[in-house]
Amino acid sequence: MLGVHGLESHIAAQARLASLRILRVHPAFRIIALARPATFGAHGAGKPTAWLTPEVLAMFLYHYVRPLSEQEETEVLLTLAPRMDRERLHQLLAFANLLRSSTDEIVMSLASALSTRYARRPDRRVTH
């Protein structure tokens, strides 16, 4: 418990911070960051090619989310878009997985364009 003097100094400190436009962050405030771990490749000549380096990663509490398998991705897409043609979906996901498994950086960048969200777009265009 704060005494009278302690309470007065606390109020004075709060007033000083407010005059400097320094506001207290709400206790429920959270920051969520999405990123991929850094890769070390030819473009960076041994330097990280992403901002999420091991040093930065250590500042976050994080959860690793593994990629969906082709079957899981198929189930998600068919749940979200049940009228999607299964054969075309299978072809699209097989192509996306082929790109994702490549070690070529250019091909891998193309693979990121074929995300699960993107794979749902053709169905939206057909059904809307």
Structural overview:
This protein has two domains: 54 residues, no CATH class; 58 residues, no CATH class. The longest helix is centred in the N-terminal third of the chain and has 16 residues. The radius of gyration is 25 Å and the shape is elongated. The chain is mainly alpha-helical and 128 residues long.
Fold blueprint:
Layout: H1 4-19, H2 54-57, H3 70-80, H4 86-100, H5 105-112, H6 116-119, H7 121-127
Helix pairs in contact: 3-4, 4-5
Keywords:
2 domains; 7 helices; 128 residues; mainly alpha
Instruction: Name the overall outline.
Output: elongated
Gyration radius, to the nearest Å?
Answer: 25 Å
β-strand percent reads under 5%
**Can you tell me the residue ranges where pLDDT is under 50 for at least 5 consecutive residues?**
none
Number of domains: 2
User: What helical percentage do the residues reach?
Assistant: 40-55%
> What is the count of helical runs?
7
Largest sheet: none
Cα(first) to Cα(last) distance is 63 Å
The mean pLDDT is 77
> Pairing-aware structural class of the strands and helices?
mainly alpha
The sequence of SSEs as H and E is HHHHHHH
Tally of DSSP β-strands: 0
Give me a quick take on this structure.
It contains seven helices and no strands. It has 128 residues and is mostly helical. Helix 3 packs across helix 4 (86-100) and helix 4 packs antiparallel against helix 5 (105-112).
